[in-house]
Amino acid sequence: MKNKISKMVFSAVALALILGCASLNTGLSGKEKLEAKDWLHAGDLAYKIKDYDNAQYFYERIIRTYPDTYYAKKAKENLGYISYQKGPIGRTVQKTIDIADPVIDDPIMAPLQ
């Protein structure tokens, strides 16, 4: 009876260790982490200069290559921002800013600010 219980406990502990070690493999190696981080940074820079197509490319590449990581989560979040910017509301807001920009930079209007 004791032998049977000890085998069950040993099996449970071994299974827990195996599952624990398996979850550690979902992390990225140093090179993979650096690559994902670089792609995220490249996407962020493209987004800042309003090059939404390139930003989308880098974010989608992260999601395809490293799907279950922190970087993929951030890339998915940033794709939402791109979707907004490329959508009708984002385009309307950008056109409004572009139209108002000359008025704001006008030296005659400057004292009114």
Give an account of the 3D structure:
The protein is mainly alpha-helical and 113 residues long. It has a domain at 28-100: Serine Threonine Protein Phosphatase 5, Tetratricopeptide repeat, CATH 1.25.40. It contains five helices and no strands.
Give the N-to-C terminal Cα separation.
87 Å
- Estimated helix fraction: over 70%
Work out the number of β strands: 0
CATH arch. level architecture of the domain at 28-100: Alpha Horseshoe
Computed over alpha carbons, the radius of gyration is 25 Å
Mean pLDDT: 78
- Overall shape: it is elongated
Oligomer: single chain
pLDDT under 50 segments (min length 5)?
Answer: 21-25
Proportion of beta-strand residues: under 5%
Helix and strand composition category: mainly alpha
Number of helices: 5
CATH topology of the domain at 28-100: Serine Threonine Protein Phosphatase 5, Tetratricopeptide repeat
SSE succession: HHHHH
Task: Give the C-level CATH assignment of the domain at 28-100.
Answer: Mainly Alpha
How does the major sheet shape up? none
